[in-house]
Design a protein that fits this description.
Layout: H1 2-13, H2 16-59
Keywords: Membrane, Transmembrane, Transmembrane helix
InterPro entries: Flp_Fap
Pfam families: Flp_Fap
């Protein structure tokens, strides 16, 4: 029983687990930010191409 308690205590004191969780949370936040930026940029570029297309179409 003492060995089990020492293992549990070592697990709770160890900082490897929380560090991995922190990195996973940071990665998730970075991915969400990147997806939002790409989506916003895509919408903006689409609007620009639509404007250019309509301008070129009307000048022919």
């Amino acid at each position: 029983m003492s060995a089990l308690m020492k293992r549990v205590e070592r697990f709770l004191v160890s900082e490897d687990g929380p560090t991995a969780v922190e990195y996973a949370v940071m990665l998730a936040l970075i991915l969400v930010a990147c997806i939002g930026i790409v989506k916003s940029l895509g919408t903006s570029i689409s609007g620009t191409f639509t404007t250019v297309d309509s301008t070129m179409g009307s000048s022919s």
